[in-house]
Amino acid sequence: MEIRGTTAIVTGGASGLGAATARALAARGADVFAFDLAPAIEKARAEAEPAPDAAAAPAAGPATHEGAASTTKPAPDAATVPDAATAPDAAAAPPAAPGRIAYAEVDVTDPASVRAGVERAVREGAGPLRVAVNCAGIGPSARILGRSGVHDFELYAQVVQVNLVGTFHVLALAAEAMAGQESADGEGQRGVVVNTASVAAYEGQVGQAAYASSKGGVVGLTLAAARDLAGRGIRVNTVAPGIVDTPMMATIGEEYREGLAASVPFPHRLARPEEYARLVLMLVEHDYLNGETIRMDGALRMPPR
Ligand SMILES: NC(=O)c1ccc[n+]([C@@H]2O[C@H](COP(=O)([O-])OP(=O)(O)OC[C@H]3O[C@@H](n4cnc5c(N)ncnc54)[C@H](O)[C@@H]3O)[C@@H](O)[C@H]2O)c1
């Protein structure tokens, strides 16, 4: 499906994989709404602030067209220049007016919050809503029987709530909006949803009971959702990344990180967020990919610990 001229939603869009995906979609000409929690949005905004003495210099990455109060569609000429270094395949992409990235405070665990975000994207988006990418996620670690006792049941429920139930909220409510739109082509295609699982869906490690359960749920959801939504012309695919260099991985020590990198058969390194974003673009653009989960892991198979 052609990305140019569409509106896209990316959850977890203020950090890591989501932020890279938002940039890549904007570089392809989509009008992007990056859903995230307030602290992550504030951090992303602070990092995007130009240094005081650089005020006159051109912006390095996509600017935003923000403001929850705004109900008008952004002017087409307000588009910004994408960050070429972070825009996958930018050189090979068809010439597209670069889109923009707007942050929207949305908690994916709350269906009312997701509905409000989707409605805003439909109302303010420069084109029809055709893309939804689920990147919001959390990955705390805890053993079923740990030193301090049995696994915290609230923590287990929270991980499933964010990673799996949140994905389902966004998938269902974005699909509802997509289904009500004209088809994008002669085949009746109306939209694409891309979810994010993890290799932990297949090889959950010690301490990953909750995380692996939630990601296994996302893998299981993928084909069922693709079949459910086929009649509406909406495709559903999932990416299962290995280890990607994002803020989620920032807490691990350097030594452990080097060990992880060395354990990847090839290339011997962590994946880059831009490599994930590139796969998302492919899943959106490739009309025959549907109901599939694709591992992106350098042939890594996680050991028990
Ligand atoms: N980084 C990796 O190695 C890796 C590997 C496999 C899978 N993943 C998955 O990829 C996705 C993105 O991870 P990342 O590495 O970019 O992490 P990240 O921590 O950089 O980004 C995750 C974002 O999700 C947001 N978020 C958390 N809870 C939310 C909620 N309730 N509502 C809205 N937003 C919420 C966070 O604020 C954050 O901005 C996650 O689902 C993660 O499980 C990551």
UniProtKB/TrEMBL annotation:
Residues 49-94 have a biased composition (Low complexity). Keywords: Oxidoreductase. The keyword Amino-acid biosynthesis does not apply. Residues 46-95 are annotated as: Disordered. GO terms for molecular function: oxidoreductase activity. PROSITE patterns: ADH_SHORT. Belongs to the short-chain dehydrogenases/reductases (SDR) family. The keyword ATP-binding does not apply. InterPro entries: NAD(P)-bd_dom_sf, Sc_DH/Rdtase_CS, SDR_fam. It comes from Rothia santali. This is SDR family NAD(P)-dependent oxidoreductase. It holds the Pfam family adh_short_C2.
